[in-house]
Amino acid sequence: MLKVVDIFYSIQGEGVQVGMACIFIRLYGCNLSCGFCDEMLHRGSYKEYSKDEILNEIKQYPSFHVVITGGEPSLYPLNSFIELLQAHMYEVAIETNGYDFSAIDSANWITYSPKDWDNIATFGFDEIKFIVNKNSDVKKIVDFDSHKPLYIQPENNRGSINHENLNFCIDFVKKNPKFILSVQLHKLIGVE
Fold it and tell me: What CATH number did the domain enclosing 27 receive?
């Protein structure tokens, strides 16, 4: 059984898969309490679903791209669930803070968003996304190197773009072009 906060169909607003129609499965719980978390639903109510119940629920949508998010998905041993989805032709992306990469390593795509910039993992993911505000100590990440896509995403307001942080990130990317700007497209176009 998985603790599910929400299952919904929308447009991916971040990273390499930006603009794709995706089915989102938001799981309950996180090992962190980030003050800037833009998704507080993972701490509220949830419903327990079996893996088959989730599969039946997502079949109503036409996309075969699934994003498992939270909270923190790697709190759950998800590999068998991911493999079930893949057996039904779904491509599975995970958004994680890196708590336990081994719990999600069957995924087709892993987006890693480290919160402890003093201890950044160097493998186990397909793209990395740093959440940045105008006061972030970006010196800690400017020398981070990877052959994977490196994204900078402004810390935004819960339902809208924070333009000061966005402008800071734009300037950062212009000075450090190995990074790519991620703007949370879903907030710009007004979808969940």
Answer: 3.20.20.70
